[in-house]
Amino acid sequence: MCMGPQAHEDRSRRYTAAVCCGALYVAIGLFGAVITGLLTAFPKELIVAIAGLALLGTIGNGLAAALRDESHREAALITFLVTLSGVVVAGVGSAFWGVVAGSIALFVQQYRRSQA
Question: I need a labelling partner for 59 at 20 to 30 A (CA). Which of 14, 19, 50, 105 fits?
């Protein structure tokens, strides 16, 4: 990856990116335990909040793409909300129940359209 054309246009200068990446990997390897120790010292809620903020753009883009088509908008929203709720039934997590609820909503919506 570091030796591809995106690293540098001149083939003789591409080694610089590979050397820098290698040095970065060595630094991460040397200080990985220290960073892990620091992160485990933070409260669990802070780590969850930071992870949530990091995923906010991805969640927003995925939700916008799911809600773009008007014919499936309600089912997509129901799927998202049930998955977001964190409900656990019979030891099965909310991701599964979100897909089930969205599928039922889509079936009802399509059945209603076919009857009309």
Answer: 105
